[in-house]
Amino acid sequence: MTYVVTDNCIMCKYTDCVEVCPVDCFYEGENTLVIHPDECIDCGVCEPECPADAIRPDTEPDMEQWVEFNRKYSEQWPVITQKKDPLPTAEEMDGAEGKLEKYFSEAPGEGD
């Protein structure tokens, strides 16, 4: 099992999760985060830290696409281990529909 970031992180990018991760497996894009599924140790400490409820275990239905999404971008983006301010759009975008299609950016974030 692994944990993955889903589309509810897009345009929110809360980083509470990265501070509690014991193995530094979060990677930062311009407007979202991902978890490297091969580095995640399945401890689960990140899941309750996410204000947007965007971190899910891969054992839930239909998570295969998110495992591959997280793997792809974690191999392209820089690691993030320190908490940063969320995006200015975080509160209004939390729970918005269709964020992957409408707002996702493949550009990397700054990392640490």
Fill in the keyword field for this structure.
transport, two-stranded antiparallel ribbon, globular, 4 iron, 4 sulfur cluster binding, FdxA, alpha+beta, 112 residues, Alpha-Beta Plaits
Verbal overview:
By secondary structure, the protein is of the alpha+beta class. The protein has a single domain (3-86), classed as 2-Layer Sandwich (Alpha-Beta Plaits). The protein has four helices and four strands. The chain has helices at 16-20, 64-74, 90-93, 99-103; strands spanning 3-5, 26-28, 33-35, 55-57. A two-stranded antiparallel ribbon has the order 1-4. Strand 2 (26-28) and strand 3 (33-35) form a beta hairpin. The radius of gyration is 12 Å and the shape is globular. The mean pLDDT is 97.
- The CATH class name reads Alpha Beta
For the largest beta sheet, what order do the strands appear in spatially? 1-4
Please provide the ordered H/E string of secondary-structure elements. Answer: EHEEEHHH
Q: According to CATH, what is the topology?
A: Alpha-Beta Plaits
Residue share in β-strands: 5-15%
Average pLDDT reading: 97
Report the end-to-end length measured between terminal Cα atoms: 27 Å
Give the domain tally.
Answer: 1
Low-confidence stretches: none
Radius of gyration based on Cα positions:
12 Å
Helix vs. strand class: alpha+beta
Helix share bin: 10-25%
Major pleated sheet: 2 strands, antiparallel
Q: Count the DSSP helices.
A: 4
CATH second-level architecture: 2-Layer Sandwich
Tell me the total number of β-strands.
4
Molecular shape: globular
